[in-house]
Specification:
With 359 residues, this protein is mainly alpha-helical. It folds into three domains: 72 residues, no CATH class; 227 residues, Orthogonal Bundle (MetI-like fold), CATH 1.10.3720.10; 36 residues, no CATH class. The protein has 16 helices and no strands. Helix 6 crosses helix 11, helix 10 crosses helix 11 and helix 13 packs across helix 14. The longest helix has 38 residues.
Length: 359
């Protein structure tokens, strides 16, 4: 198992290096001249020369790349042009909400998608199977921005006067923003330092912060604001997970050892749970890992529709205002997260399938 883990980690290193190379070239290739991409097309030659000197763009390309790699290794992603703050600070402010949204959407997709896939496989070609796959096809085809708008209209306008009403935008209702948990607990936190930064970062996870500090009104308000974006973001991965679970489980249910277990008189539920499901999980786990990476990137549309202050809205604003340090830094973080998630999925194979550990 250790040898397998080391092999997978070593394989991920060149991929991460490739991500750094692509992110480095991104603003230089896609945006063209960085000066006019940032300062606008009417920037003068003198201002562009000053901009290039201030940002080291007049250095040879290999020197720029070496400096960029060094900055990445020290978590220095530059300074945002729009916010006039380090990109790392903007990222740490926005990342907790996006993580909350992505994890809640993934949890909903797994809790609903996996049982639907199992039911469709157990009752193959039955009305349950047909209905489940019809639901999955509709879900995977539904645009997030359209679904988000429809959910907002339904739960905020149509059901606005009922107990089913849900807030369509924002993270908190006015006056219900929870205090940081360390302030509620009476902890004294300095203005700088690792531990103070960690506490501040954790306090930005709204539900976690409100629950552990017993701010129940704020916790419930944060959950209510998260319901609609979670449903909108979870619909596509839910459909994909359901389809993959059904396909994988149908393949395993046709194997000889599963038919033998059923022939010995084992109940259908026990055959599925004890003999088929675990062997069918490998492709499902792969899909779940891929969906987590996609959810972090796909949160751009969801956060924009529901006006949530996450990395999605920050990235959208940065693209429209040509704030290329934000675009570059956030793209690097999202792509690197995708690689790390896939690495974790690969390592989980060794636990789920003993044959992988023996390779």
């Amino acid at each position: 198992m250790i040898a397998y883990a080391v092999k997978r980690i070593l394989t991920a290193i060149p991929v991460l290096f490739g991500v750094v190379v692509v992110v480095f070239l991104l603003p230089r290739v896609v945006l063209g001249d960085p000066c006019r991409a940032v300062l606008g097309p009417r920037a003068t030659e003198a201002s562009c020369e000053q901009f290039a000197a201030a940002n080291g763009l007049d250095d040879p390309i290999w020197e720029q790349f070496t400096r960029f790699v060094g900055d990445v290794l020290t978590f220095d992603l530059g300074e945002s042009i729009k916010f006039s703050r380090p990109v790392t600070e903007v990222l740490l402010d926005r990342l907790p909400l996006t993580i909350e949204l992505a994890l809640s959407a993934l949890l909903l997709a797994i809790v609903v998608g996996v049982p639907l896939g199992i039911a469709a496989a157990r009752w193959h070609n039955s009305p349950v199977d047909i209905g489940t796959m019809a639901f999955a096809n509709v879900g995977v085809s539904m645009p997030i921005f359209w679904l988000g708008l429809m959910l907002s209209y339904l739960f905020a306008v149509v059901l606005g006067d009922t107990f089913l009403a849900l807030p369509p935008t924002g993270r908190f209702s006015p006056g219900l923003t929870p205090e940081p948990f360390y302030e509620v607990w009476g902890w004294t936190v300095s203005d700088s330092g690792f531990w103070s930064g960690l506490l501040e970062f954790l306090s930005k996870f709204a539900v976690f912060n409100a629950v552990i500090s017993a701010q129940w009104a704020g916790a419930w308000d944060a959950i209510r604001h998260l319901i609609l974006p979670t449903i909108a973001l979870a619909t596509i991965p839910m459909a994909i997970i359901a389809r993959m679970t059904r396909s994988s489980l149908l393949d395993v249910l046709g194997r000889d050892y599963v038919r033998t277990a059923a022939a010995k008189g084992a109940r259908d539920a026990r055959v599925v749970r004890r003999h088929a499901l675990r062997n069918a999980l490998l492709p499902v786990v792969t899909i779940i890992g891929l969906q987590l990476g996609l959810l972090l990137g796909g949160a751009v549309l969801t956060e924009t529709v529901f006006v949530l202050p996450g990395i999605g809205t920050a990235l959208f604003d940065a693209i429209t205002t040509r704030d290329y340090p934000i675009v570059q830094g956030f793209t690097l973080v999202i792509a690197s997260t995708y690689v790390v998630v896939n690495l974790v999925v690969d390592l989980s194979y060794g636990y789920l399938d003993p044959r992988v550990r023996l390779q």
